[in-house]
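User: Last request for today: this protein with nicotinamide-adenine-dinucleotide, please.
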Amino acid sequence: MILVTGGAGFIGGNFVLDWLANPHAEGVVNLDKLTYAGNLATLQSLSADDRHIFVQGDIGDYELVLSLLKKHAIRAVVNFAAESHVDRSIHGPGDFIQTNVLGTFNLLEAVRAFWSDLSEEGKQQFRFLHVSTDEVYGSLSATDPAFSETNPYEPNSPYSASKAASDHLVRAWHHTYGLPVLTTNCSNNYGPYHFPEKLIPLVILNALAGKPLPIYGDGQQIRDWLYVKDHCSAIRRVLEAGKLGETYNVGGWNEKPNLDVVHTICSILDSLRPKADGTSYATQITYVKDRPGHDRRYAIDATKLERELGWKPAETFETGIQKTVQWYLDNQEWTEGVLSGSYRDWVKKQYS
Ligand code: NAD
Ligand code: TYD
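Assistant: Here's the final one, the structure of the complex with nicotinamide-adenine-dinucleotide:
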């Protein structure tokens, strides 16, 4: 079996669903703390699949992790578990240090204890894949080349600093203890089951609810966008064939200013779900105060992953965003479940 951490979150949930869609795949032990971002409704279609074992718990719980590794004879760990939202990290960095830094440390220690006791063959076959972000590289100017794996780390937010710290721990556990690790640094994901605190789902749901579409600052900040299923296929490929100790950048070759992303969503909604009064959803765009320390541009050079492992994204931004908007229109039950009291508290704190 494999151990997936954070598999009730956005990317981890998509990963588990895609992994188990293959009838020949190994089973998944899914360890998730079920913070505000974890949602078992994402995994509902697996309720009758005995290849999926869900365990509510913390990656920082050394004893729990070690017992799961032993009990299920785990052969690979894919670590998605993290606090993941930049704006929340600005309001309260403590949880980010706790999970992303200390949690990863405890997870690595439990994995190291388990791995050290394996046979020589078991040791060689074992993998620890750490899922990270392009935000560790800092911010680019309009003319800088895209981030490659050799860029220095220059994290600017509490979120990216905590992820950078976890990447360094993973690297050190390979160099010092020989733990067979792989790291992926990916750009902004979007797609089904995305929690609506992040730009794309927030804009889709606010648009449909007739609420303002908040643009931070001038809306000209650039992100590279990757459809979540493409991120999942990249992780599967790196897990299967990545070189131990290496890092792989994952990106969609889709750099877009935020304002363009929001206009694209509005025009898709204008055609799929026209407003009764005949106006465009774009009339709901509202400029709000900028995020402190807001990184101007991220761009990913994913040529290493293509050259060495033959991975390329299947979706363009245009095809992926169309599917995403359609998914939110078709799955209002999932989103209604997410828009709970704690979510409303967050929106009030962030946007009032
Ligand atoms: P998410 O916030 O949607 O999900 C995180 C999941 O981790 C949740 O289910 C949560 O309950 C769980 N979790 C949090 N703390 C935990 C703990 N201490 N122990 C166990 N589980 C815990 O995040 P996401 O967007 O799915 O991101 C997953 C990973 O991918 C993160 O490591 C993130 O840094 C990385 N990443 C995200 C993006 C993106 O665009 N979303 C891009 C690149 C990399
Ligand atoms: P986000 O989805 O939070 O991802 P990240 O900060 O990890 O890149 O934000 C994507 C971009 O959209 C980022 O530049 C901030 C901006 N943004 C807004 O303009 N308005 C919003 O309400 C949100 C949530 C984000």
